[in-house]
Every structure is written in C-alpha cells, then in structure tokens.
Write a structure and sequence with these properties.
The protein is mainly α. It has helices spanning 3-24, 30-35, 42-53, 56-69, 75-98, 103-110, 114-146, 151-201, 206-209, 221-231, 244-260, 262-265, 274-292, 295-310, 327-333, 357-365, 380-387, 392-430, 436-458, 465-479, 481-489, 495-519, 544-562, 568-578; strands at residues 213-214, 219-220, 338-340, 373-375. The termini are far apart.
Length: 589
Amino acid sequence: MDQYTLNLLVVGASFALYIGIAIWARAGSTSEFYAAGRGVHPVMNGMATGADWMSAASFISMAGLISAVGYDNSTYLMGWTGGYVLLAMLLAPYLRKFGKYTVPEFIGDRFYSNTARMVAVICLIVASVTYVIGQMTGVGVAFARFLEVDKATGLYIGAAIVFMYAVLGGMKGITYTQVAQYCVLILAYSIPAIFISLQLTGSFLPQVGLFSEHTASAQPLLVKLDQIVTDLGFASYTGHHQSTLNMVLFTMSLMIGTAGLPHVIVRFFTVPKVADARFSAGWALVFIALLYTTAPAVGAMARLNLLNTISDNGAQADGITYEARPDWMKNWEVTGLLKFEDKNGDGRIQYYNDKSEAFKATAEANGWAGSELTVNNDIMVLANPEIANLPGWVVALVAAGGLAAALSTAAGLLLAISSAISHDVIKGSLNPGISEKGELLAARISMGVAIVVATYLGLNPPGFAAQTVALAFGIAAASLFPVLMMGIFSKRINNAGAVAGMLSGLIFTLVYIFVYKGWFFIPETNQLPDNAANWVFGISPLSIGTVGALVNFGAAYLVSSMTKEPPVEIQTLVESVRVPRGANKAVAH
C-alpha cells in the first residue's frame, strides 16, 4: 500500500471516530453545550484538558523551535508546564466554586458590571482568535503534506471537520472527542520518538536517549550535535545565547498566559465538584508531561537527522547534490515549506548559517554564495519519521496526531469564543430573556461564524504556529490573568479598576506587538522594526505580556484606590469563594 493511501486511511479513521463521538455525545441543553453538564470525571477531564492544551504549537511547532535554536527555546517547556501549577493552585478551584459557565460571566458578576463583562469578552476574543490562527496554520501544514493538497485546501478540510463535531457536540461532544484525540496524539508523538531514539542511541526512552551516547560517533548525542551545528556556523545547541531578561519575561508570560486562557479555564467548569477542579489540573499536568518531556529529545534528534541528511553526515563540506536529495525532501518541497535555491550554480545543497560573521570567511573559501535550503520549523516533527526512514504506518500516525492536536485545541478555542458571544453578549446583554433553545441555536451559529473567521485568518498567519500562539499567551497574560487573580484574592478591586486594568493591559500589549512584530514601518529607514536593536529595553514582543500584566495590575489598583469600594455583598462573595464553608464558625467543645 502506498504512503498516500495509508495516510488517507489512518487520518480518515481518526476523523470518523471524532465525528461518531460527537454524534453520540451531542449536547441537548445549554449546560451540556457550555460545561458538559458538569459531569466529567477528573481523570477524563485531565486527559481532555491535555488534548485541549497540546495544540499544533505543542505537537508541531515546539520541537521545531527547540530543534532550530536549542536550549534557549526551553522557555516554551518551562512556561507552559509552569502555567498549570499556577492554574491548579490559584485559579481552577476558586473559579469552579463560583459556578459560572464562562470567564466573562465570572468577571461580570464579581465586578458587578456589564461593562467589565463586555471588556472581558473583547479580551477573550482577541486572545482566542490569535491563538486559533496557530491551530489553523498547523492544520494547513499537516494536510498540505500528508493529503498532498495546498495549505488553503487543508485549512478548508480541517475547518469542515471541526464544524461537524464542535457545532454538533458543544462542550460535551468536544470533551469526549478530546479524550480520543489525546490518545491519538500521544501515540503519534511517542512511537516515532522511541524508534528514532533506538536508531541514534540504542535507548528505548527518548528522555534517556537525549543524554546518552550517539551510537554512530561514540560521543554523547548533544556533544555530537553541538559539533555539527558549530561546524556549519550555527550557535551551539546547548549554549545560552539570548537575553536572560527576555527568557525570564517570556517564561513568565507563558506561565500566566496559560493560567489566563479562557479555553483552558472553562475545562474546569465541567467537573462535578470544586475538589475535582484541582485534581483535573494535576492529571492534566501528568498527561501533558508525557509529551513535554519527550519534546527536547524529538527536537535534538530531528536536527541531527536533518543535518546528517543534507550536509554529508554533518561534515563541513559541499553537501549532497540536489538530484540525489532523498524522497522526504521531494515530498516536502511540494508543500512549499522546504525550498532550495542554487545560489552558486554548483547543483549541490549548501546549508549553513550565512548570517554568521565568524563563518563568512569559511563560506567564501568554499565558494558558497549563501545558504541554499529553507526549512520551515513547523515541518520538523512531521518530517522526522520520513527523514529517519521509519515505516509508512508511523508516518501516517504522525499525520493523524498532528491533526488531532490542532483540531482539539481549535475546537476548545472556538467553543470559548462562541460561548462568550452567545452567553455573555446575546443572553447577558442584548437579549436576557432568550429561551434555552434560542441560546443553544445562537451558540451553534456563533461557533460556525467563529470557524469561518478563524479559517480566513489562518490563511495568512503572522508567523509560524508556535510564534503566533506565543503572542496569544502574551495577550491573555496582560488582559485576563490579572483580573481573575484580583477578582479572587482582592476585595478592594472594584468595577472601574477591573475595566481600567483590562483595557490598559490589552492596549499596551497589542500596540507593542503590532509595532515590534514588524507590522509598522520605521519611516526614516523604511525598515521593519522587529529586531532586538529596536525593542524597548531589549524586551521582545513575545515577552511583553509580563509587562502588560504589571500595567494591568497597576492600573487596576490605582483606579480602585481612587474610587468607591465594592459593595459589601461583593466583598462577602469574594470571601466565600476563597474560604471553605464553615471555616469561620466557632468550634464547639
């Protein structure tokens, strides 16, 4: 059986499973559509949360980023896992105790303001739409290669699949679908990693193989990789080459962004009891760790295999001829995500760091006119089994896993967006008297519209998947996390302070991102400003969410201190959410 047919069978079977589950678990009420009837077991919810969380950025892009840069991009691992600790300890149980369906509903009730609720809706939509762009990009990348269609067609197919199971099933259908998607994606990630670890190091566990001896060279694998990348002018793989300030701010932005993302928070509204919310977060961290501890090994081994393939087993030489390139390169060239340009006309593939001043003399002495191969970071995980010549069924499984990761998170994000529109905007503001049947219809229509918008934006994303997602985390960190924290732990923050904080954090962060991600020109030089020389105090746009959160906290406290305290009943509500029942009662003796 040829690879294309095998891909169709495996991917098609996974899609049939998702749609079948959605039909079986179809939402029949608004409670089931928004919160799965609050009847999901914490272990199952932890697995669904893992799938909701491990998006195209985690499955496709994260290892690609680690592969391209090395140690410095371990910030993604630290930030995204650390965020779940914050979520489990500081937010999930308290928000579940409050007993609402959506994040804006909590903010509106806690700050006794429909304005606060609407501002929260705006923050939610901006963060979620930015995030979903990365998922739709990942869908396009996976479909483009494995179904041999262009990225746009891949996006349309993926959008149609999400529409069928998300619009039909709501949170109830999405939850059980995500459990199946988690099983698919973790198998798809782990099995190739095990194969490749055995090939390169003889170790069954990739986590151990990363620090084991490279079989072919009898050197530690990371030492061998460092040698190859530095021989080709790249920075050392295991070295620290970026600003420590940016690493700290970026890690913190990912952590508090994780804890503030609405599609993650809403998962903890689906469990029966308050205690189950914390248990769910713990189980989610376990299921996520299975992939996240494997990702560094996948990234390092993919980089080593890539360099060995195209640069004559890592030697500093002219590399292989273009005509002799392996089949996996031919396959990915069709997608446009891998490109070759013969700059010196010798018919050979030169791949090196042509921006390195230290390596410039060596390149010129070899007659090289610039690096001739462009490899999109997003293909590294998907192409890894092909590069390593793994069996066809493994390649097909990776395709299904990449699509499961992207579609599961896209569905969760789209549900958060549609719930905010139908429950918070339509029912909460425009038409409070709407019937449950009407609200359910509005939720499904909102979901459909959100899918169309996400597909449109996914056609021209601002960066590859994980980078786009990182911006979404900055937006959530600057706008929603502070107001949730203050809503739970401060009785003094009032409605005016909450609105001022959200708006100031959101606007500050968006302006910085729009300016320094290269979406505005510098008039004097007509150059894009997205480089470290132009950043304020050297702070990257990907790290600015932490500063935006501080702006949010500061504005909220300043405005609240200058305005009237919240009503007594709101302060009592805050106390009741934080303190266990009966804690203030005298103990009888």
